[in-house]
């Protein structure tokens, strides 16, 4: 029979094995007087008198009350059922809002793990595989992307969202059957009117975001025109590297988990109502560990916001064309085709157009003689010349 009782081993060594007290004291690393004290206690009270006493306190002031433990478990279940983030940081955030004691996140994690509420976690990519980018201020960089959701009948719907990189604040989330470049640009302009222009944007290379990286003729699209008008720097992720937009990719995971926990929307109008509800939750009720447990709204609305640098990026390009018999030519500007009036007298002639942002100077290719000048008015399809040959020269 083995016994972990060190004091009893000392008694046995002296009494049963007749070892000298001095030798036993040296072997066990105690004084000879301590050996004699153990022997005296044994003689007076037997084995119980020399049993080692627990060093643990009789009370545990830091122990989690059972009522709080059950509350944490139930909160985890409720948040998960609702499709909300239910990690230790979020639970701690809600406990604080409820005025309850807030254990450490490691304690909360242990409670929900012991309750069997943490399943196997999928293997994640190493952090080194992600491009680490962190804007230092609100409005320093807006990320934008389009993802897809489905209606109850299986109809595929596009969802456009804009996210502030620094605060994770969801600036906008909108559902449509399909987004055109013009619709994306209009959304951007509305956000600029509401929040002020960001210093930069970060998107993928989709045609609604950029035409210059797709080898597409016709200059900048509507999104790029809006950026240029406000002097906003445009940044695009590398093709095939969605990690560049890691924040908005992870945001989409949160969105889809939340949507999946609800009955599927029958119409786009119903889906938009769900997205509006999600935006309010995401911005005001979901704390972020990287933000010091602040919500995106708290992080976005505090502190100074970045502004665009004074970096004009006017568009310069040339275009060779032939004037149609009706005296018109077409040109793509901001993602749309416009008809420029040149004049029937020039029908069939080869021309050269020099484009400087929204200003177009047209000359005859043969002689170099300037025949018209236009300023594109995006509210009109047909563009009358601002000046044509025969009028007084522009000053």
From TrEMBL:
Transmembrane segments: none annotated. Residues 293-312 are annotated as: Disordered. GO terms for molecular function: nucleic acid binding. InterPro entries: Homeodomain-like_sf, Integrase_cat-core, IS481-like_transpos, RNaseH-like_sf, RNaseH_sf. Gene3D superfamilies: Ribonuclease H-like superfamily/Ribonuclease H. SUPFAM superfamilies: Homeodomain-like (SSF46689), Ribonuclease H-like (SSF53098). Residues 134-304 form the Integrase catalytic domain. GO terms for biological process: DNA integration. This is IS481 family transposase.
């Amino acid at each position: 029979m083995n016994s972990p009782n060190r004091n009893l081993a000392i008694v046995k060594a002296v009494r049963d094995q007749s070892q000298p007290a001095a030798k036993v004291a040296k072997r066990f690393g105690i004084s000879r007087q301590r050996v004699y004290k153990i022997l005296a206690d044994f003689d007076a009270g037997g084995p119980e008198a020399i049993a080692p006493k627990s060093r643990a306190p009789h009370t545990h002031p830091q122990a989690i009350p059972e009522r709080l433990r059950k509350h944490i478990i139930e909160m985890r279940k409720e948040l998960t059922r609702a499709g909300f983030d239910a990690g230790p940081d979020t639970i701690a955030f809600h406990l604080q809002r409820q005025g309850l004691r807030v254990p450490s996140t490691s304690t909360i994690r242990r409670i929900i793990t012991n309750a069997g509420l943490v399943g196997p976690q999928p293997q994640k990519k190493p952090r080194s595989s992600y491009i680490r980018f962190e804007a230092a201020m609100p409005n320093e960089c807006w990320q934008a992307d389009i993802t897809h959701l489905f209606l109850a009948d299986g109809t595929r719907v596009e969802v456009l969202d804009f996210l502030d990189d620094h605060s994770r604040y969801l600036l906008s989330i909108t559902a449509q059957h399909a987004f055109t470049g013009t619709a994306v640009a209009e959304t951007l302009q509305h956000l600029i009117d509401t929040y002020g222009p960001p210093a930069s944007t970060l998107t993928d290379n989709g045609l609604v975001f950029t035409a210059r990286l797709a080898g597409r003729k016709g200059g900048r699209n509507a999104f790029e025109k809006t950026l240029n008008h406000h002097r906003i720097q445009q940044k695009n992720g590398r093709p095939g590297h969605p990690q560049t937009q890691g924040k908005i990719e992870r945001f989409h995971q949160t969105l889809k988990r939340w949507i999946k926990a609800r009955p599927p929307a029958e119409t786009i109008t119903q889906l938009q109502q769900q997205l509006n509800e999600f935006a309010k939750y995401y911005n005001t009720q979901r704390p972020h560990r990287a933000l010091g447990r602040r919500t995106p709204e708290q992080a976005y609305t505090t502190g100074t916001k970045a502004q665009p640098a004074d970096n004009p990026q006017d568009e310069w390009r040339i275009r060779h064309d032939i004037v149609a018999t009706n005296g018109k030519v077409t040109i793509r500007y901001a993602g749309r085709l416009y008809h420029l009036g040149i004049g029937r007298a020039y029908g069939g002639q080869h021309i050269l157009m020099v484009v400087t942002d929204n200003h177009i100077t047209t000359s005859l290719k043969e002689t170099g003689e300037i025949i018209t000048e236009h300023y594109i008015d995006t509210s009109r399809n047909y563009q009358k010349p601002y000046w044509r040959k025969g009028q007084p020269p522009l000053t």
